[in-house]
Design goal:
With about 725 residues, the chain is an alpha+beta fold. About 45% of the residues lie in helices and about 10% in strands.
């Protein structure tokens, strides 16, 4: 290794080609974060040099390059291990400067700069030999088009890209800085500053040195690399350079397409889908539970200790990725029948259960090829029942990752013919809160008198109703009806008896009967799904009119079953109660548990009050979103903020806190303790967490005046009755 402080003149003057390996990420620097600060630094540097310090310099950062053996007399070639964003930006800046100088007729200065962006014609044996820098494959067309454009550059005629935009930016600010008229002296100052006064720490490695170790040490600078970026670099550093390009296009290039680069929220953190997949795939391969931030470290350990041939490992990763994508894209298709894995993915996905992905990957790995097809279907049915029943009874989700890893470890020790039985046995035998499988009576107790419309998130409630409808239609199953499964994720939830029944369905009821109707109207038996939105006249119209419309215009079987049972004479509390019981029976049949299975014996859940509601419950019910930003209301550190995590914790500066008050305590600047429910509000609004909680309780019809939660020194204020209820989840079908 040789380290020097060099200038752009030193790096680019001699004939050379700095090659960015194709497995590195594309150019990502931007105007606000990097281009403008660099230009401002150059302008300040010129002012200092021209003013009082003629020897001033400006340090840009470091690069790491590694020499590649080349033929005697050929163009020297270096691999860019780190610093490709910086080197690419310098080339774009220098070429934009050359174009401006050439356009103004400053030929001598233009020639000085040209030598730093192009190699002499006598050294050019291939297209890429023209350029001092040869970018990664995804940037080559954009790079060559802008770097070869004649002055003045017609940017509108060039393909859109970040590289074109950078070149355009630098040309614009250079032209503006030089101004009109005779600016040759200004131009000479600029050329000298850019080529001779910018400093870079250049680390040059011999061919046999460990480039990956250096790369990992330096990668935290600039725009952070994702886990997929780090793993890609690690893999391709170990593959022979002669085979790297073919291996890249065969097994990795797909990860650098929009679908895989999309940001996916897991917990409170967003990661590119490729990074999320690699984490879940590695959990399935290693059968260990670890956070996503450790995926690169775990991957290196896995390669160094288990799969030492990365060239052989790459196709395995790609095959698993193709299966992973097929399942997700199939589950997101709203129309038509699915494979058994796809409805599992869709239904469990509505429960925010990304924790199931490693198990799906594990089940599809080559080692499980011997599991019979019928057993695979049964495994998915068992697990879907476990997930859905736990969601219906609001079982805690913390620790599910670890539980499912334990399940995979258990299954990995069983014969392939016994895996399905092992899944059932493992789920039945667990009697802990984190892993138990709720029995029929617990599910029935949780639903039968519940305000399901307010208690469950809309997407989850719709999924349950869709599943009941599909079961009526024979999906998934061996005897489906010709009408096909219901269109997924498109239907709206409709109340058979309107929520505002006093206005639209007035009745002569006692006060007690009115209270009962208020409760029944939000229960499961009063809900259905409609595939076409009802206009308000039909939705709130009399029963005979509404019933006739459904029979005439709607093909939803669970609705027609209810209409037939009620008849044309009316829909009231008794029919809602009867239909609720019937629908619970259907739920237990769609997601069955073994005969006689009890689950976790426990007392009935306590009533929901302000004392029992936590952030996890608000998230689960759809009143808070994962990743929501919270800001302090009063007496807090300027700029303090918190983020809502999936499990209900609040993160402040990447540190998790179990309660709002604990999170508030770390930023509160006043004296004494603080009530976090009143302290934190949704960023950009005046809605406190306490307001969200009160609105949630109001939706359940709970009387929360009897219990007041207070911090050691600050009591919650009563909810403002005039405050609009702003729910995160979507509204229902009728007058919700």
């Amino acid at each position: 290794m040789k380290t020097d402080v060099v200038k752009p003149q030193d790096i680019f003057y001699n004939p050379t080609r700095l090659t960015v390996p194709l497995f590195q990420r594309p150019y990502v620097w931007s105007q606000q974060e990097q281009w403008e600060p660099l230009w401002q630094d150059i302008v300040r540097l010129i002012a200092v040099i021209d003013g009082h310090n003629h020897g001033a310099t400006h340090f840009l950062g470091a690069i790491v390059i590694q020499q590649i053996p080349s033929k005697l007399g050929g163009l020297p070639v270096w691999n860019v291990i780190d610093g490709q964003q910086r080197l690419t930006t310098l080339q774009l800046l220098l070429d934009a400067l050359h174009a401006e100088l050439e356009h103004r007729g400053f030929d001598d200065l233009a020639d000085q700069v040209l030598r730093l962006v192009e190699n002499p014609p006598s050294y050019r044996k291939a297209v890429e030999d023209r350029y001092k820098l040869w970018p990664t494959n995804r940037d080559r067309n954009s790079f060559t088009s802008v770097m070869s454009a004649s002055a003045p550059v017609d940017y509108a005629a060039l393909p859109a890209s970040r590289l074109r935009d950078a070149h355009h930016f630098f040309a614009g600010v250079i032209g503006q800085w030089l101004g009109d008229g005779d600016a040759q002296q200004q131009a000479a100052l600029l050329v000298g500053a850019v080529t001779e006064r910018l400093e870079i720490a250049s680390i040059r490695l011999d061919a046999n040195e460990d480039a990956q170790a250096i790369f990992e040490t330096l990668n935290a600078r600039g725009t952070p690399l994702s886990a997929a970026d780090l793993i890609k670099n690690f893999i391709f550093q170990q593959i022979d350079s002669r085979d790297a390009e073919s291996a890249y296009f065969a097994s990795w290039a797909e990860f650098e397409t929009p679908w895989w680069e999309a940001e996916i929220t897991s917990g409170r953190i967003k990661n590119p889908r490729a990074s999320l997949f690699l984490w879940q795939w590695l959990i399935a391969r290693t059968l260990t539970d670890f956070p996503i931030r450790e995926v690169f470290t775990q991957f290196k350990h896995y390669v160094n200790t288990v799969e030492k041939d990365v060239a052989a490992l790459l196709p395995q990763i790609r095959a698993a990725a193709d299966r992973y994508r097929a399942v997700i894209e199939g589950s997101e298709n709203p129309n038509g029948p699915l494979t058994r894995t796809q409805p599992f993915s869709y239904r469990v996905g509505t429960l925010d259960s990304e924790v199931s992905r490693p198990l799906l990957i594990w089940l599809d790995e080559p080692e499980q090829a011997g599991v019979p097809t019928a057993d695979r279907v049964r495994i998915l049915e068992l697990l879907e029942s476990w997930f859905v029943r736990r969601a219906l009874v609001k079982a805690p989700s913390q620790g599910s990752n670890r539980f499912l890893v334990d399940l995979m470890q258990h299954l990995s020790r069983r014969s392939k013919e016994d895996v399905a039985n092992a899944v059932e046995g493992f789920l039945v035998a667990n009697h802990t809160a984190v892993g138990y499988w709720p029995g029929d009576e617990e599910v029935r107790s949780a639903i039968v008198d519940a305000n399901v419309y307010g208690y469950y998130r809309r997407s989850r409630l719709r999924m349950v109703l869709e599943a009941l409808e599909d079961a009526k239609r024979g999906y998934p199953g061996a005897n489906p009806l010709a009408m096909g499964p219901i269109v997924r994720e498109k239907a709206t939830i409709e109340h058979l008896m309107p929520q505002k029944w006093r206005k639209h369905w007035p009745a002569d009821l006692t006060e007690e009967e009115e209270h009962e109707r208020d409760a029944r109207v939000q229960q499961l038996g009063n809900l259905t799904i409609v595939t076409q939105a009802l206009n308000s006249r039909v939705s709130n119209g009399p029963w005979v009119q509404k019933r006739a419309h459904f029979f005439r215009s709607d093909d939803v079987l669970i609705t027609k079953e209810a209409l037939t049972a009620a008849g044309e004479y009316g829909w009231d509390e008794r029919t809602i109660v009867a239909r609720t019981e019937s629908m619970i029976d259907q739920i237990l049949a769609v997601w069955p548990a073994p005969v006689g299975h009890i689950g976790l014996a426990s007392s009935p859940p306590p009533p929901v009050t302000r004392a029992t509601v936590d952030l996890a419950q608000l998230i689960d019910a759809g009143w808070l979103t994962v990743g929501a930003r919270l800001a302090p209301r009063l007496q807090a550190v300027v700029g303090a903020e918190a983020f809502v995590a999936q499990d209900g914790r609040l993160f402040v500066a990447d540190v998790a806190h179990a309660t709002p008050s604990a999170a508030a305590a770390v930023v509160y600047t006043g004296k004494g303790a603080v009530n976090g429910w009143s302290f934190w509000q949704l960023e950009g609004t005046d809605r406190r967490l306490a307001d969200v909680r009160d609105d949630y309780l109001a939706s359940l019809g709970e009387d929360d005046d009897d219990i007041e939660i207070t911090g050691p020194s600050h009591a919650d204020e009563p909810a403002d009755p005039a405050r609009a209820v702003g729910r995160v989840a979507g509204s229902g079908g009728d007058d919700a």
